[in-house]
Amino acid sequence: MIRSRWLAVTLTALTLLAACVPGSNLPDTRPTDRQAKDIRTDVAAMGEVTLTVWDQEVRGGQDKQITALNEEFQRKYPNIRINRVPRSFDDLRNTTRLGLTSVQAPDVVQVNNGRQDMGAYVKAGLLLPMDGYAEVYRWHQRFPATVLLLSGLPEVVSVTRGS
Question: In 3-state terms, what secondary structure has residue 41?
Fold first, then answer.
């Protein structure tokens, strides 16, 4: 009797814990790419927007530059607020998966483009494809081939470019 009661309590606790796993209430579908025609580029017409941005630019000069760039952007687009969450490289790397699987995931996160990080997040469907944005903002024309090559793995490129 005590053993079956203990088993019932344990199973109930495990079920409750499983329900609380980060990302367990997210849809099982992979993110889809927004088509270029569906992307709004008139920032002023977007209304009030707050972007939560996680980055690793915490060292002296980097932090100062990102802070200045964010302030300049917010002056130019007063309807956009940037909620910047700077973290050390290790802290960012250790918290990104949990953050991306949260219902309150950051809007933008700086991810190491290595196979262990970006490759795994793309494979898990945790990063949105950016092809539509690349087309609208002409990233493939604005950045040199070497930068584009370094910005993705073959597996990532094939997933994000659809080829």
Answer: coil
